[in-house]
Design brief:
Elements: H1 15-24, E1 31-34, H2 36-43, E2 51-54, H3 58-67, E3 71-76, E4 81-86, E5 89-95, E6 97-102, E7 107-111, H4 115-120, E8 129-131, E9 137-139, H5 143-148, H6 158-164, H7 167-179, H8 186-194, H9 204-215, H10 221-229, H11 232-236, H12 247-258, H13 264-270, H14 276-285, H15 290-301, H16 311-320, H17 323-341, H18 345-363, H19 373-378, H20 385-400, H21 407-419
Parallel strand pairs: 2-5
Antiparallel strand pairs: 1-2, 1-8, 3-4, 4-5, 6-7, 8-9
Helix pairs in contact: 7-9, 7-10, 9-13, 12-17, 14-15, 15-17, 16-18, 17-18, 20-21
Length: 420
């Protein structure tokens, strides 16, 4: 029985997409929407990018697109991919192909016209679906049945697919986190465990990119559990080995219950130790962005806060430290105490305290110290170490007093300090 997405794919009616498909199917050629857009529509999830597969050779794709007034950019022409901008939206258009040589990271391809060969070179059955311009789904590898069963399965021999590109090990767990249910496919899981050493061939940028996508799934906890079982998690994230991943379950539950937006970096912090030195090495190894590395460092350095801490005391810590670091710590403490609160009244009180402190930290704005060096020079102070020491001491007093002393009071204290 044929399957169609025509009644649930609003994106398919977009006039520029339809025109693009039409011009690529003129004559003896053919073109279909491929991969994620078809998969997500069948699953009922949003569609972001729309990719197209075609029998047209790359140069012919460019010729036809430009003749129609579209912009064509040869973004991956050696692998048959052209990006066509139509109606302000980019579409990746790739010529049907087969891999003729792979080394676990990249492949040499041969262009062709065989849709089944093109489907069989892809990674998972749910990613190898096509849709005609009218919405008819073309399934050559059993992907529709796997979507209905929420089953993630390699196409053909899992080991062969992985040896073509070892990133597929991480993609197996990432797609399982997003689309799978129950247990992962046994043969796929075994193949990932057997070939995990191949992950060392990958660039760290690809590894971190894939991990971030996995950690962004609605609930990555089951995938992380199976990654740990297969020793794949230890291979790419050795910092998690002795620390464990138990906290991720409480965090994902807190996200759902409290309406927190899933945050891949916070989820990473849930499965690694708050050790600043190790986090610095982790960030360097996986080539984190400066913002990511700073956030991880500040989280690790944030001092422990008890649930009974007053808001005034927390404000002092926030001033001296980094607010995001404390917010991350408070979220994780709150998530873990909520788990214990199910059977422990003391933990319930703790959770209430952390919830109060988190709300305060989220709305807190750093106050500005009212004095500057120029204020002290106006009082007769000479630039130098003494001036800096006086400012530093006054700021410390101001913080300890709850940021209450006003500028006039601080100037009086500065004048007194200069006289001593």
């Amino acid at each position: 029985m044929s399957v169609s997405i025509a009644d649930r794919a609003d994106w398919l009616t977009e006039k520029h997409l339809q025109r693009l498909l039409a011009l690529l199917t003129d004559g003896d050629e053919a073109a279909r929407v491929a991969g994620g857009a078809v998969r997500n529509t069948l699953i009922g999830q949003p569609v972001a990018d729309i990719d197209i597969a075609t029998t047209c050779l790359p140069e012919e794709t460019i010729r036809r697109a430009e003749a129609a007034g579209f912009k064509a950019v040869p973004t991956g022409i050696e692998h048959g991919t052209i990006t066509v901008v139509a109606g302000g939206k980019p579409y990746e258009i790739t010529t049907l192909r087969a891999d003729i040589e792979t080394d676990g990271r990249r492949a040499k391809v041969l262009f062709g016209r065989d849709w089944k060969l093109d489907a069989e070179r892809r990674d998972f059955t749910i990613n190898a679906l096509y849709a005609e311009a009218d919405g008819t789904v073309v399934d050559l590898v059993g992907g529709v049945a796997d979507i209905e069963a929420r089953r993630l399965r390699f196409i053909g021999d899992p080991e062969a697919r992985i040896r073509e590109d070892y990133l597929r090990i991480l993609r197996f767990f990432r797609f399982f986190a997003w689309y799978g249910e129950g247990r992962p496919d046994a043969e796929g899981l075994k193949a990932c465990a057997r070939l995990k050493e191949g992950l060392a061939q990958l660039s760290v940028e690809r590894v971190w990119s894939e991990l971030k996508k996995l950690l962004s799934a609605p609930d990555p906890s089951r995938a992380l559990l199976w990654m740990r079982q297969a020793s794949v998690l230890t291979s790419v994230l050795p910092e998690s080995e002795k620390w464990g991943i138990d906290a991720i379950h409480g965090l994902t539950k807190a996200e759902k219950d409290l309406g927190w937006t899933p945050d891949p970096l916070l989820r990473l912090e849930a499965v690694v130790p708050p050790d600043a030195a190790r986090m610095k090495l982790l960030a360097e190894r996986l080539k984190f962005s400066t913002a990511e590395a700073d956030r991880l460092r500040h989280w690790a350095l944030a001092a422990t806060v008890a649930s009974k801490t007053t808001e005034g005391e927390l404000a002092k810590r926030l001033y001296r430290g980094d607010r995001q670091g404390f917010v991350d710590r408070l979220r994780l403490w709150l998530a873990s105490t909520r788990v214990r609160a199910v059977e422990d009244n003391d933990a319930m009180l703790e959770a209430g305290g952390f919830s109060r402190l988190l709300a305060f930290a989220l709305k807190w704005e750093k106050p500005v110290f009212p004095l500057k060096g120029a204020d002290l020079t106006a009082l007769g102070a000479k630039p130098g170490p003494k001036l800096g020491e006086i400012l530093k001491n006054l700021e410390a007093e101001w913080v300890e007093a709850g940021f209450a002393p006003e500028r006039g009071t601080l100037l009086e204290r500065a004048a007194q300090a200069l006289e001593t």
